Amino acid sequence: MSVTTPRPVLHDYWRSSASYRVRIALNLKGIGFDRVPVDLVAGDHRHPKHLSVNPQGLVPALEIDGLVLTQSLAILEYLEESRPQPALLPANPAARAHVRALSLAVACEIHPISNLAVLARVGALAGETARTGWNRDNIAGGLQAIETMLNDSGFTGRFCHGDLPTMADCTLIPQLYNAHRWDVSVAHLPRISAVARTCSTHPAFAAAHPDQFDPSQEAKAIQGEKA
């Protein structure tokens, strides 16, 4: 008697960079999933229903293998350990450390002080101009440091490391989406720009892009079908 394994369920917000990371990784691993949208702007993440899934009131949360996983990089590590092919981490220990460092440079340094709650607090304390300046400076400085990390002579290739996408690409590309939203140019960062071009043609990245899940676009599509 065969046992049907439920499809993974991703609780996410369409524009959340942490959610975007996980969508990319699931696509790279060829893991089909269903979505439960959590509207951060509307405050859905504070609703008891979502808090029962993720007590931190954050996204993403992934239901998979009878588990509920939270924190995007922990989810990526779980996917890598439970489904090692195709790999999100290179085989060489030094290369793995470099990929993890790149990932953490985004997830632990840039992202935390650019999230919705922090920006709202900065805006409340100092106004909209300060909020915008804060975020642009944070993103620009963080990406400049990552450009330098990518330029290490020992780490070459079309992606962040080598010629296959890794966990580092899963974290960098969503951050570049945020950079674009905040009018932070990366044109002067050739290594990052090259990685972005490579990922833009990869179907796993394209399918995970926030534009694919924009509620306003989905509403327009439905209205068009009814017209």
Question: In a few lines, what is going on in this structure?
Answer:
With 227 residues, this protein is of the alpha+beta class.
Plain-language structure description:
It contains 10 helices and 4 strands; from the N terminus they run βαβαββαααααααα. The chain has a 4-stranded mixed beta sheet with strand order 2-1-3-4, covered by helices on one side. The model has no long low-confidence stretch (mean pLDDT 92). The protein has 227 residues and is of the alpha+beta class. The protein has helices at residues 17-29, 48-51, 72-82, 93-110, 116-126, 128-150, 167-181, 190-200, 203-208, 215-226; strands at residues 9-12, 34-37, 61-64, 67-70. 55% of the residues lie in helices and 7% in strands. β3 and β4 (67-70) form a beta hairpin. It has 2 domains: 10-85, Glutaredoxin (3-Layer(aba) Sandwich); 93-208, Glutathione S-transferase Yfyf (Class Pi), Chain A, domain 2 (Up-down Bundle), CATH 1.20.1050.
